[in-house]
Amino acid sequence: MRPILENLWIIPLLPLLGCALNGLLGAKWPKKTVDAVALGSTGLSFVLAIEAVREFLGYYQSNYHAFVKPFFDWIVAGNFRAGFDLQMDQLTVVMVLVVTGVGFLIHIYSTGYMAHEGGYYRFFSYLNLFMFFMLILVLAANFALLFVGWEGVGLCSYLLIGFYFLRKSATNAGNKAFIVNRIGDFGFMLGMFLLFRTFHSLDFAAVFDATSKLPPDAMGQFGTLTIASLLLFMGATGKSAQIPLYVWLPDAMEGPTPVSALIHAATMVTAGVYMVARSHVLFTHAPTAMYVVAIVGCATAFFAATIGLVQSDIKKVLAYSTVSQLGYMFLGCGVGAFGAGIFHLMTHAFFKALLFLAAGSVIHAMSGEQDMWGMGGLASKIKVTFWCMLFGTIAIAGFPPFAAFFSKDSILFSAYNYEHNGKALYTVGLLAAVMTSFYMFRLIWLTFFTEKRYDEHHVHVHESPLNMTVPLMILAFLSLTGGWFALPALFGGKDYFAEFLAPVFGAAEAGGEAGQSLEHTLSIVAVVAAAIGLLVAWRMYTKKVKRRPSQGLHKVLYNKYYVDELYHAVVVGPLVWLSRNVFWKVVDVGLVDGTVNGIASGSRAVGDTVRQTQSGNTRSYAVWVLVGAIVVLAIIFWPILHPALFGEVR
Amino acid sequence: MVPTNYYLILSAILFGLGIVAFVFKRNVIAIFMAIELMLNAVNLAFVAFSQSFGKVDGEVFVLFVIVVAAAEATVGLGIIILTARNRRSLNVERVDLLKL
Amino acid sequence: MTGALVIFFALAALAVVGSVSLILQREPIHSALSLIVVMVALAGLYLLMGAEFVAAVQIIVYGGAIMVLFVFVIMLLNAGEEERTNFSKLATFAGIPLALAVTGFIAAAIAHSSASLPAPEPSGALTSTKTLSMLLFSDFVYPFELTSFLILVAILGAIVLAQREN
After folding, report:
1. pLDDT tier for residue A494 given thresholds of 50, 70 and 90
2. Between B23, B60, B73, which is nearest C140 by CB?
3. Cα-Cα-Cα-Cα dihedral of C135, C141, C144, C146, to 10°?
4. Which of residues 78-97 of B touch A (CB under 8 A)?
5. CB contact under 8 A, B33 and C85
6. Which of A256, A304, B53, C73 has the fewest CB atoms within 10 Å around its CB?
């Protein structure tokens, strides 16, 4: 009847199989076989995902609730059960299609980009492993299984960031990503524990049903639901690179560009947003937590945009842009517009992946150069890459009819109407949009226009092969059309996207007449903001540009507000000191080694003492015999004698 | 009649003196004689009990002790002769080849 | 003070003096002679208790065979005055206290259980040689045969040990 829906496990399993085959046998295989395995598994997964979605839509027509299927018991302890349960609902539909679809495109791109790299099979093995874990994450029906996927993608992120493991900076970046993620995961786990303690289950259905029956916490009240939500959000700040745990994402650019595109733009970093959206019932019952989410998201969006204004590495600009856009998604979720947040997640996946892949194409064309100040005037030379990147830039800046206009606009509109300082949030978000437009167009101008700043004899600029440019074109198309799912009423269309997600998030607010005209106004303001950014960038960068030495505010921004240095001084430094001087010298060397060595030297001391009895002197031996005899006598006579010794009257 | 206690106390005293001799004498033959003294003390105790309980079993055991003491003295003195020839001394403290 | 008691104390004193003399004598031959005195005293005590056979065996075997053997060995080895070495600190310091401890334990045990001992009877009928031999050859015949075997082994051992190397 519904073969794929009943066997959802096959969707994550195929990439896992690809990973295993490539990992174990790929070293010996020719490139084409590795490609076939990797692309085949991911592509088939995508096809099956589409089929599963189709079956689910049919299922939903008759059943009106999410499809959950338990497959086997994973943890059974007392009355706690966490099973390998997979589910499908409208939110999962969006996520699974984005993950498998964009993932597949990036796999195709990688066959071109990584063609000359060592460890080719290893790359695809890790990439497939990542797909497996990400699919587990989005298909999971309980927090425990979601966490498995969560951790797994963190692992793959570590493996892939440090792919060029012979480079110290790469391995450091991998460590940093994993460790910072773990800090967030600590919060996530505490949140899970709290949820378990309150609801005695980690299944989404059970937890959310129970939560919906509870009264919501008041604003400012730190009840159980608020604390649980805040803890879960702490995990999200780690995984989705929000303040204060965003610091790993810029460093993660050490990994190959397809990795940056897939993991650090389209999918892994969106896991936090997905998790918050999935737990929207919890969050809506905890207005304080929502407020925190909104503020953190808004602040991150602004903060990261300011850093992105001055970066010179093309990938770093995009990295900070990602952090900033993730901030928008959380802003959307925080003000209650979960649907808008997810919509922006989807459009962002399209255009950010496009931007990263196009940047990769540029880097490939420039034979590895990543600094924009070493590029210039490439528009005429790599036309396809240029046009795709331009599409992506227009999209991210928020010009209609490209995708991000609709999603960003939706978020800002909801922020404006938010009851707690919504206008302030809106203003900051708008400023961030101006900056986004500015730095993205700055990127375009510095890279593709302005004068040539590279040496033609050393760098042979060439367009990328088809297996790289075709995914770019597909993503460019999606960046243009992806927003048309949610034409706001002002264009006379229906918000199909919000309607689609209504079964999950509840009906979208209509807004009424006043709402509609407000929406019109705000949309126009948004476009104007984007135009301002574009114009300022034009003025500053189209003419002959001169790179001045960095000073003052520019220096602060360029050095990312010295946040890494601050963390190092406040957190890392003391921890390392503690580890070295306390845990190593005192505990490990002193206590542990001391105990082990102490036992050895203690035994030896005892041995030395006992050795004294073996004196070789017969008379001493005689005395020892006597001592033994007395001990035996004592044992035999003591029960008889001791009342006599102390009790008898003489 | 002499109470049995007196014989037993005397046996204990002789036994103790035998121990003192065993520990303090340096001549190996003297140590052997101390062992004989201890065996005699025990014999005295056996006979005292035999008389006290009215059974002859104690005396039978005394005979056995005497026989075993004889055998032991024989073999022991043989060993002493050999050791004395080897170490050229009858001082038990000179037999210290096991000393580290 | 009955006569038996007087004889007892006399013989006891003799035994104790002999033992002390055994400890204090420097020449081993003097120690051997002291031991003979102790044995004779003990034989007397056996007689006092009515164990004539045991007394006789004590004199004949212990005094007449074992002690003679001792004296022969002393003379064979020409054992002279004892050397005054003192290598064992342990023996010096722990010897007397330990001996006192042993004696004390035994004495305490005796004192504690003295009430349960029945009074001795001097009837010779019980302790006659006939009763002894009846018991020896009926109930205790197996140990008896074993001891004869033991003596055989001892003789063989002594011969092997004392052989001159050929």
Report:
1. low
2. B60
3. -160
4. 92-93, 95-97
5. no
6. B53
Percent of chain C whose predicted confidence (pLDDT) is above 90: 51
CATH no., domain C1-81: 1.20.120.1200
- Residues of A within 8 A of B100 (CB-CB) are 611, 614, 616
Chain C, nearest residue to A617 by Cα:
C88
Answer whether A195's CB lies under 8 Å from A187's CB: no
Classified as helix, coil or strand, A495 is: strand
C-chain residues near A621 (CB < 8 A): none
Q: pLDDT tens digit string along A295-331?
A: 999 999 999 999 988 888 999 999 999 999 999 999 9
Number of Cβ pairs < 8 A linking chain B and chain C? 238
More confident residue, A252 or A65: A252
CB contact set of B2 (below 8 Å; sequence gap of 6+): C4, C5, C8, C48, C49, C120
Separation CA A26–CA B72 (nearest Å): 85
- Other beta carbons within 10 Å of A118: 10
Of A302, A295, A278, which Cα lies nearest the Cα of A330?
A: A295
Q: What is the pTM of this model?
A: 0.72
Q: Is the pLDDT of residue A149 over 90?
A: yes
Contact list in B for residue A625 (CB cut-off 8 A) is: none
Indicate the Cα dihedral angle A110, A114, A115, A119, nearest 10°: -120
pLDDT at residue number A581: 85
Residue B2 to chain C, least CA–CA distance (Å): 6
User: Residue A113 and residue A111: Cα distance in Å, rounded?
Assistant: 6
Judge: B1–C151 Cβ closer than 8 Å, yes or no. no
ipTM of the complex in this document: 0.92
What are residue A87's DSSP bridge partners? A68
* pLDDT value at A640 more than 80: no
Residue A514's pLDDT band, with cuts at 50, 70 and 90, is low
Residue A618 clears pLDDT 70, i.e. is over it: yes
Residue A499 has pLDDT above 80, yes or no: no
Give me the residues paired with residue A72 across strands.
A84
pLDDT at residue B44 tops 50: yes
The domain locations on chain C are 1-81, 124-166
Contacts of B22 in chain A (CB under 8 A): 622
Which letter, b or e, does each residue of C27-38 get, where b requires 16 or more Cβ atoms within 10 Å of its Cβ?
ebeebbbbbbbb
- A-C CB pairs within 8 A amount to 47
Considering CB atoms only, which of A611, A616, A623 is closest to B98?
A616
What is the per-residue pLDDT for A48?
92
- Interchain contact, C108 vs A629, CB within 8 Å: no
Name all domains of chain B by residue range, CATH numbers in brackets.
4-94 (1.10.287.3510)
CB contact under 8 A, B98 and A622: no
Q: What is the mean pLDDT of residues A78-85?
A: 86
Side-chain half-sphere exposure of A226, counting CA atoms within 13 A: 16
Contact status of C109 with chain A (Cβ, < 8 Å): yes
Do the chains contact at A616 and B97, CB–CB below 8 Å? yes
Query: Which H helix or E strand runs over A70?
Result: strand A67-77
pLDDT of residue A374: 82
State what percent of residues in chain C have pLDDT above 70.
Answer: 90
* Nearest-angstrom CA–CA distance, A493 and A480: 17
Asked whether the beta carbons of residue C91 and residue A623 sit closer than 8 angstroms, the reply is yes
Task: End-to-end CA distance of chain B: give it in Å, rounded.
Answer: 57
C44-82 pLDDT, tens digit per residue, is 999 988 888 999 999 999 999 999 999 999 999 888 887
Please give the full DSSP string across A192-220, using - where no structure is assigned: HHHHHHHHS--BHHHHHHHHHHSPPPPTT
Q: Is C70 in contact with B40 (Cβ distance < 8 A)?
A: no
